[in-house]
Design goal:
Strand content: 25-35%
Structural class: alpha+beta
Largest sheet: 10 strands, mixed
Number of helices: 13
Radius of gyration: 20 Å
Low-confidence stretches: none
Bound molecules: coenzyme A
Length: 392
């Protein structure tokens, strides 16, 4: 049975900061950000977009009356969730009008958990071939003003429907997971921003990549020649390349192909930044939308990494006519219609917070045109609103 990604759609909020402006404000050479780290813009969420609303906006175009009755499970992968107890997926279930006899859960393991969601979905569909699973990876990456990680922040979500006979990517059921307890990046329950050992996290990522790749080769006789492209978890656009180049020959057709396609896969990340759980799949969407040389039947490698740490290497095959099922023009429109913030506006937006004392507040933002928004807080409850689609 063929199981995999039937559809995928990306959402990022309507605000961004140009990283040349950030470089100027932090008195850093802009080339360090745009060339050394490889980021051009940072996606920023207004107060009206949180992990749940971003996830709902990512999933909204994928859901119709028919598949809402076929989805048995909603998995929200996030490390910036809104509640210790109630999963964000329960709101998605309501906002997307999914049939009532479904499971709705949230999963966590830093930036890795989107992949955990997909693998759980794969197993579910294997046992229930006529049913579907909605997996949404949604996050707001926060390192803090003036920190080394600030330039890599971002916000966004990727929604995917996992089903039998997928229209975009068939998963090859060849996953090699890897777990190694460490403290490269973590966020204790009392912290608003992540704690990170940046240089060590780069090394831990590369080690995990090499381990999972070599184990994949050993178990499945995988060769680089057989891969049309490799998509990476992208905390910033240079990170995957640092790992990839450790296993490439200096000069070969394979090296050229993988490096050229790597650049296609990082274009959305360069514009949006790190979206933690969704970053690998943001890279996949970028590759699919922007690389016109890819062909159906070709094999894509995927490297997932979540600090703390869990990694996984797996492959999938592009499906015949996959291009007909992409949301390329939606993604292009969304990225081109964003509103640029000044440094002052960015810092004010970054420091804004929701009431924590149960008071009621109505929320709105002039630049938020999303279909689904966080519209109010009332007695510690988040109230979301679905606006008329025409307003977009
Ligand atoms: N022009 C061009 N490149 C420049 C430059 C300039 N003027 N100044 C610096 N650079 C390059 C550096 O040579 C370096 O390149 P390299 O990584 O290929 O060696 C790169 O820019 C980053 O410089 P560095 O001094 O290492 O940056 P930093 O100390 O500010 O930290 C991170 C960079 C990524 C560690 C930091 O942003 C961070 O902690 N990020 C969050 C954690 C993370 O994303 N981890 C990834 C694994 S999950």
């Amino acid at each position: 049975m063929k199981i995999g990604i039937d559809q995928l759609h990306v959402y990022t909020p309507s605000l961004y900061l140009d990283l040349k402006d950030l470089a100027k404000a932090r008195q850093v050479d802009p080339d360090k950000y745009t060339i050394g780290i490889g980021q051009d813009r940072m996606g920023i969420n207004p107060i009206t977009q949180d992990t749940v609303s971003m996830a709902a906006n990512a999933a909204f175009p994928l859901i119709n009356a028919r598949n809402a009755s076929e989805i048995d499970m909603i998995i929200l992968a996030t490390e910036s969730g809104t509640d210790y107890s109630k999963s964000g997926a329960t709101y998605l279930h309501d906002l997307l009008a999914i049939q009532p006899f479904a499971r709705a859960i949230e999963v966590k393991q830093a930036c890795y958990s989107g992949t955990a969601g997909i693998m759980m979905a794969y197993d579910y569909v294997s046992n229930h071939p006529d049913r579907k699973v909605l997996v949404v990876a949604s996050d707001i990456a926060r390192y803090g003003l003036g920190t080394a990680g600030e330039v890599t922040q971002g916000a966004g979500a990727v929604a995917m429907i996992i089903s039998q006979n997928p229209r975009v990517l068939t998963l090859n059921n060849d996953s090699v997971p890897y777990t190694f307890h460490n403290f490269d990046f973590w966020r204790p329950n009392y912290a608003k921003n992540a704690l990170v050992d940046g240089k060590y996290s780069n090394q831990a990522y590369i080690d995990a990549f090499q381990k999972t790749w070599h184990e994949h080769q050993r178990r499945h006789h995988t060769t680089l020649d057989a891969l049309a492209a490799v998509c990476f978890h992208l905390p910033y656009s240079k990170m995957g390349k640092k790992a990839l180049t450790t296993i490439l020959d200096e000069e070969s057709d394979t090296t050229n192909r993988l490096l050229t396609r790597y650049e296609k896969s990082v274009q959305y990340t360069r514009q949006i930044g790190n979206i933690y759980t969704g970053s690998l799949y943001l890279g996949f969407a970028s590759l699919l939308d922007l690389d016109e040389s890819l062909n159906a039947g070709e094999t894509i490698g995927f490297f997932s990494y979540g600090s703390g740490s869990v990694a996984e290497f797996f492959t999938g095959e592009l499906v015949e006519n996959y291009r007909h099922h992409l949301y390329t023009s939606d993604h292009e429109k969304m990225l081109s219609q964003r509103y640029p913030l000044t440094i002052e506006e960015y810092e004010t937006t970054f420091l804004e917070s929701l009431p924590e004392d149960g008071s009621s507040v109505a929320l709105s933002h002039p630049q938020d045109k999303a279909v689904i928004q966080l519209a109010a807080m009332d007695q510690h409850r988040r109230i979301y609103q679905i606006y008329d689609k025409v307003e977009q």
